[in-house]
Amino acid sequence: MAAEKGTLTDAARELYISQPSLTKCIKELEKEIGIQIFERTNKGIMLSKKGEEFLAYARQVIEQADILEEKYTHKTAMKQEFCVSTQHYSFAVNAFVDLIKAYGSKKYDFSLRETQTYEIIEDVASMRSEIGILYMNSFNETVLRKILKSHDLKFTKLFVAQPHIFISAQNPLACKESVTMKELEDYPYLSFEQGEHNAFYYSEEIFSMVERRKNIRVRDRATLFNLLIGLNGYTVCSGVIDEALNGKNIISIPLEEEGEMCVGIVTHNKSHLSRLGQAYIEALKRYV
């Protein structure tokens, strides 16, 4: 509760105890386990690095206790929590929907973060997210694996895709069975910007190092799709798209270029997948 609220005063009010009592409990816990869970700032409190790791383990223990209590005492389950951070993939959204339909109880707090590549790594490293989803290829693999290793993370392959483009169904190239880079030269190229970490290695799009005359960077998938339609632009992708989720206005066409995208999941070596994490991965496999 203290981690969620950001201040001990707000957390104490939510727990119906006094702020000094909560402060005493936290200090006793920190003394018992031998780490500093929270760092105090002029704006309140924030989890320390060790505190983030401790909280992730604690949540796993609480989840297992809730499962036992629900099964053997028939009490209502506590609020379920789950968070996944991902590059901008529609299949990740589909799987998230299935997860909530299957496991969403009367109380749950689920988060789907479509975000930048570096933030995905940071989210899983800090255990803010249980699972991350990103891709590797021959260009970025060495760098990304080094970064993942330094954060004690592992990458597990989900599927391998050949390069495709997403374009509007009204694009002049929409009638073609495949396209070349040469044919794309006159069309605006859309990609997801990576903020401070805008190096080619963090790009969500394969062949990010290719120079293009017309470049547009965006932050979210809806904007990118709107620009694909409005400007007859294109983006390079895995080719996996769901018509039910994205409509019939966006189509996928193979790109005649050598290369592969290995899309996979990122998890922390020090944590074990919760039942929600396992269920989410199974849902991902059904869609890809």
List keywords for this structure.
alpha/beta, 39% helix, elongated, Arc Repressor Mutant, subunit A, 12 strands, 288 residues, D-Maltodextrin-Binding Protein, domain 2, three-stranded antiparallel sheet
Secondary structure layout plus pairing:
Layout: H1 2-5, H2 8-15, H3 19-33, E1 38-41, E2 44-47, H4 49-73, E3 80-86, H5 90-103, E4 108-114, H6 117-125, E5 131-136, H7 141-150, E6 153-161, E7 164-168, E8 189-192, E9 215-218, H8 221-231, E10 234-237, H9 243-246, E11 250-254, E12 261-268, H10 275-287
Parallel strand pairs: 3-4, 3-5, 8-9
Antiparallel strand pairs: 1-2, 5-12, 6-12, 7-10, 7-11
Description of the molecule:
There is one protein chain. The protein has 288 residues and is an alpha/beta fold. The protein has 3 domains: 47 residues, Orthogonal Bundle (Arc Repressor Mutant, subunit A); 129 residues, 3-Layer(aba) Sandwich (D-Maltodextrin-Binding Protein, domain 2), CATH 3.40.190; 97 residues, 3-Layer(aba) Sandwich (D-Maltodextrin-Binding Protein, domain 2), CATH 3.40.190.10. It has 10 helices and 12 strands. The protein has a 5-stranded mixed sheet with strand order 4-3-5-12-6, sandwiched between helices. The chain has a 3-stranded antiparallel sheet with strand order 10-7-11. Strands 1-2 form a two-stranded antiparallel ribbon. Helix 5 links the parallel strand 3 and strand 4. Helix 5 packs across helix 10. The longest helix is centred in the N-terminal third of the chain and has 25 residues. It is elongated, with a radius of gyration of 22 Å. 28% of the residues are buried. The model has no long low-confidence stretch (mean pLDDT 86).
